[in-house]
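Most newcomers find our protein records easier to grasp once they have seen one. Read left to right, the backbone structure tokens trace the chain's path through space. Once this layout is familiar, the rest of the handout is easier to follow. The record below serves as our worked example for the rest of this section:


***
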Amino acid sequence: MTDDDTTGRPSRRALLGWGGAGLALGAAAAGGAVALAGPGDDGPDPAGGAVPFHGAHQAGIATPVQDRLHFAAFDVTTEDRTAFVALLKEWTAAARRMTAGQPVGEGGFGGMPEAPPDDTGEALGLPPSRLTLTVGFGPSLFGRFGLADARPEALAELPRFPGDKLDPDRGGGDLCVQACADDPQVAVHAIRNLARIGFGRVVVRWSQLGFGKTSSTTPEAQTPRNLMGFKDGTRNIAGTETDRLEEFVWVGEQDGPAWLTGGSYLVARRIRMHIETWDRAPLKEQEDIIGRDKGEGAPVGRAKERDEPFLKAMLPTAHVRLAHPDSNGGATLLRRGYSFTDGTDGLGRLDAGLFFLAYQRDPRTGFIPVQRNLATDALNEYLQHVGSAVFAIPPGVRDENDWWGSRLFTDDRTATEGA
């Protein structure tokens, strides 16, 4: 990376007098000017590039999927509306800098030596690594700050689905932040600094680290595989399919409150995989359960991964058949899931699985009917849904004067309430 990014501001390294090229963990060396990830590239940008922060929609949704995730849900601890709005503005300013590869705060470490530094420091010298930060508001947030009338009808706690074994300590939350990057240290640094800035106003409720993206928004790239060894997300919405994004992902003017237009809804589910049991299942049984062959990823009776599935050739309980839009009235999700491993469960089994993330225009016509249809999925024998949350994702930050949630908190109905 050079001493200046594309915005003309000093880079994180230049501000702190660091010389030489920094290496991201698992990424390429920093190069010249900041570059953007191309529409057909889900891998690390050779320049450790930055994803634009400003735009009509938040980055981290249709953006080419990065390799690593740190997701955190927060509970709000302040009752002061002004303090909470100030937090959103401070978070936005910090996110704007971190996604550009700069340290939090104009002075880097900054301030007096007797005071804590502005930035925690573990990402200094690292390139941006395509870091994106995506913020959402949970249903519980609208019970405070005079926001009750602004809650979208579609933003309601998810119903309980057959087989759910939900841990209350792994679900819900007033806010969420999804940090995706090609370097895990960059993603963790971002969540750590937002949590630090929020001290006294918010507290982390739960969090999840993820690796090995299990879905792609760039169909030109190789389809990733989940921990069961199967390709996942073959028919996922591409980031370049603006018509499908408008139809299935972005909230329209007619869909609900004006503050959410251009935003989306996020469903997050922590899905434990019983991989030891799965690993003992015969290959033919695994393929019948999924509805695709394990090597090529072709649907049953087809030759290539992207061949149109013949659903009736699959078992009635096959996962692909039950999850397919044709089996769900056309319901379609944009998925950005990640694999996870969190040690063992005390019985010698890996606590591993899929951290499912799905964006949609309305959960009532997206995730909920699809998940209900999966009640007879043969794959359920090997899965357990243990965490669950839903969030409204506001539209993007328009410019340097804008901030996350600005339209929600400056709406005429809520601007004077709860102050």
